[in-house]
Specification:
There is one protein chain. The protein is mainly alpha-helical. It has a single domain, classed as MFS general substrate transporter like domains (Growth Hormone, Chain: A).
Length: 408
């Protein structure tokens, strides 16, 4: 049997939003609580550009630090994808979260450029292990017709926690950056323990069947996945500008770090309020086109910053970007679940996570360099990336391979 991902009617449900939420399993609500705690304390990376800038490091050096974090993230995705399918979701999550908290303490204690490089690599190598396992666990326990809602609920916790945390982090950063590192360590460790104690293992497979080679072969043959992968690779570059070039833009406009924190917090609150209702449209409209529109708005949103002479234009840009994020992210997570075989979910999720890690390596640093040398190219480039990503999602590739065709 062949499937047409994104147009599978069995994933369309007549249940109301309230019925969908009530039917979600206990695991989703544990993830909700843990993610909120963890994201509330995700202080360091959003403020890392400003932290290093205050320490006297150049845009090029800051770019290398972000690249080292992303390099660790690439390694983590390879390891996390296989571990998730091999030892189960909860232990993989615990390893990533507790290790990530400890790595933040190392990052806090270094005081040289090379120290930041190796500590940054450690941060990326630990934090990145978590994501393939968490995404796969939702797919394991939630039936297809409720996955968009489940991902939206967990993202609600992500953004509500992020909004509350960023509002606090801006004030903490003005007082002492040390509190950001300590808070990150504490919240990551709490969530790591919660995951290992309360969550199920999820789907596991044998050592032979959890290898990467058969999974990569399956992905290459899955043309719908290939189009989605490259669309996401392009679109995600816009996300990392908010922690890099836009953060620098706000301070260059003469505003304190508190303003940056409050703007980012505002985005999180908007998502917490509106994302779940918006995501329900994705259950009724063509999936690929819906994701594509979201990617387009993300690119345009970042590009609007090129018109900024004050915080109001930055806020408008952030609203446009946030609408795109709300449209694309929950539905794209559910779409990935449609494309991946059960026994390969961890590795499929890790492959998509690669798009985030690679952009983490390239996008913040490149954005900062372009911001200093040719800002118009940066802002117009973001719009072009959004258009290209949308074009890939609007393609109608030949039918994908059956998701269960190859499982070893």
């Amino acid at each position: 049997m062949e499937t047409e991902p994104g147009n599978n009617v069995k994933h369309r449900s007549s249940e109301t939003l309230v019925e969908q939420v009530r039917a979600l399993p206990r695991v989703v609500w544990i993830l909700f609580a843990g993610v909120f705690i963890n994201r509330f304390g995700t202080f360091v990376v959003p403020f890392l550009t400003l932290y290093l800038d205050e320490g006297g490091y150049s845009a090029g050096q800051i770019a290398w630090v972000f690249a080292s974090i992303a390099g660790g993230g690439l390694l983590a995705m390879v390891a996390g994808g296989r571990l998730s399918d091999l030892i189960g979701r909860k232990y993989t999550m615990g390893i990533g979260l507790i290790g990530g908290g400890i790595s933040m303490l190392f990052l806090w204690q270094v005081d040289s450029f090379f120290g930041y490089l190796w500590a940054g690599f450690l941060v990326g190598a630990t934090h990145g292990v978590y994501h393939p396992a968490a995404n796969s666990l939702i797919t394991d326990v939630v039936p297809g017709e409720r996955r968009v809602t489940a991902y939206a609920i967990v993202r609600w916790a992500v953004n509500l926690g992020f909004a509350c945390g960023m509002a606090v982090a801006g004030f903490l950063a003005e007082k002492n950056f040390a509190w950001l590192f300590i808070g990150d360590f504490v919240t990551s460790t709490i969530y790591g323990v919660l995951a290992m104690v309360t969550l199920p293992h999820g789907v596991r497979t044998s050592s032979r069947k959890s290898r990467w080679k058969p999974a990569l072969q399956h992905m290459i043959e899955n043309r719908a996945f290939v189009a989605f992968f490259f669309a996401q690779l392009l679109a995600v570059g816009a996300f990392f500008q908010w922690g890099g070039s836009v953060a620098r833009l706000i301070t260059d406009l003469g505003y304190p770090k508190t303003v940056y924190g409050l703007l980012m917090a505002g985005s999180g609150f908007v998502i917490a309020i509106f994302e779940i209702p918006i995501s329900q449209l994705g259950r009724r409209l063509p999936t690929r086109g819906f994701i594509g529109v979201g990617y387009l708005l993300c690119g345009i949103g970042v590009s609007i910053n090129g018109l900024a002479s004050g915080w109001i234009v930055v806020a408008i840009a952030l609203v446009v970007f946030t609408v795109g994020e709300m449209i694309s992210m929950p539905v794209s997570s559910a779409y990935l679940a449609e494309l991946a075989p059960e026994k390969m979910r961890g590795r499929y999720s890790a492959a998509v996570g690669f798009t985030w890690s690679l952009n983490h390596a390239v996008a913040p640093g490149l954005g900062l360099v372009l911001y200093e040398s040719n800002p118009s190219l940066l802002w117009w480039g973001m719009a072009v990336l959004g258009v290209l990503a949308t074009g890939l999602m609007l393609l109608n590739p030949a039918r994908a391979v059956d998701p269960e065709k190859s499982t070893d």
